[in-house]
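--- STAGE predict ---
source: upstream dedup step, 1 unique chain passed
mode: sequence only
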Amino acid sequence: MYVCGKGKDEYLTGEATIPEKTNPKFRVWKTENHMVMSWLINSMNTNIGENFLLYGTTKEIWDAARETYSNSENTSEIFEIEATLHDLRQGDLSVTQYFNILSRHWQHLDMFEIHTWKCPEDTTLYRKIVE
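--- STAGE serialize ---
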C-alpha cells in the first residue's frame, strides 16, 4: 500500500525500465529505485532484509521476496485461520467489532484462493463464488 500510495509501484512491476546510463533520466530512476528498495528492506525484519541488500533493483527484491516467502498453498496457515474462525465467539465484542474480526480473517483466507479464468463463463462462475 505504501509504495502504491507514493506512486512508485512501477518499480515493483518492472514498468519503470532502466534507462541507459548516458540518459539524463538514469539518475532519477536510480534515486527512486534505491528509495523504494530501502522502503522494502526497512519494512522487513533485519535478519530477512539483510538477504536482499545486494539486489540491484526493486523488482529483483520484490520477485525474490515473493518467491521466497509467498506460499499460496500454505495449508498450516489456512488451517490456523479456519480454526480461529471456528472458535471465534462474539462474547463481549460489539457486533461491529465481531464483524470486523470475521471480515479480516475471511479476507486473509481469500488471499489463498487462486482462480484462473480461461473464458467469459469463468467470470460468471467467479461472481457466483463471491456471492
